[in-house]
TrEMBL record:
Signal peptide: none annotated. NCBIfam families: ribosome small subunit-dependent GTPase A. This is Small ribosomal subunit biogenesis GTPase RsgA. Residues 63-221 form the CP-type G domain. The gene is rsgA.
Amino acid sequence: MLKGVIVKAYNSYYYVQSEDKVTMCTLRGRFKKERFSLLVGDLVLYTMSGGDKGVIEEILPRRNRLLRPTVANIDQVMLTFAAVNPDINGVLIDRFLVLAELSGLKINLCVNKIDLANPVELTALTDIYQRIGYPVILLSAKTGMGIQDFRTLLYDKTTVLAGPSGAGKSTILNAVEPGLKLVTGEVSRKIGRGKHTTRFAELLPLAAGGFVVDTPGFSLTEFNNLSELELMHCFIEIAALAPACKFTSCLHDKEPQCAVKQAVQAGEIDRARYHSYLELLAEIKEKRKDYK
Ligand SMILES: Nc1nc2c(ncn2[C@@H]2O[C@H](COP(=O)(O)OP(=O)(O)OP(=O)(O)O)[C@@H](O)[C@H]2O)c(=O)[nH]1
Ligand SMILES: [Mg+2]
Ligand SMILES: [Zn+2]
């Protein structure tokens, strides 16, 4: 049997890549009921069924899966922002980070369009995240600055680019691998709003080895079904201190003898991050009230 990875699912065919070859595969009958649970990124065993088509015989265990877009077996997420247009800010980063942290995947912070940025202001912001432990990658897809290093980070991995619309995700990927020819700019945005966009993710192969997933930008407004505790765990530097609080149920808001609040006072936890956390905590509480 041959082993490959599903790079695309379309019209009840699965496109399975093995080495440099992509084979259109159907699913063995006994798997049919699992059809909708088979994802792009899944590793499968398949046989050739005559002609150039294949049949998927076995689905190998899945390491992880991202919900948006639904892709399996991802190595890392590049959370991508523009330094300018749309302007980056801490609250925006923090909101996207909450969603990204929920996936449990390794997260890198990419800031694109540094050709337009004020380096001093940008560094002040990115330093906050670097101190927490997020790798920060500065890029300009336009001038090519940082693209070579970025390419190195993608080598032999499956990487998802996610972030606000207009950040330059598709432009970055085109700079990394010109053959991808992804749609960028206003056109991309118009398609994104239309009905006929490919709603399903695709693994795009890199010549050097590895795959990337381009995703359409989305705006973050609400966090559905997120509990206070889940939120807290998405702020990794806050969650790390929580065990030192007096109350095990401490949400680091009004509670006394709170190690997190002490760390904010001492300047060990960034105040702006803490405020983002409180703001989101309040949103969750508010939403709960609405449902009652
Ligand atoms: N100045 C500058 N402009 C850039 C850079 N990278 C991308 N752009 C521009 O930013 C705009 C948006 O780029 P896209 O690559 O379409 O952004 P995206 O993140 O893929 O957006 P969505 O697909 O809507 O999520 C385009 O007009 C690009 O030309 C950069 O490094 N510097
Ligand atoms: Mg795009
Ligand atoms: Zn606390």
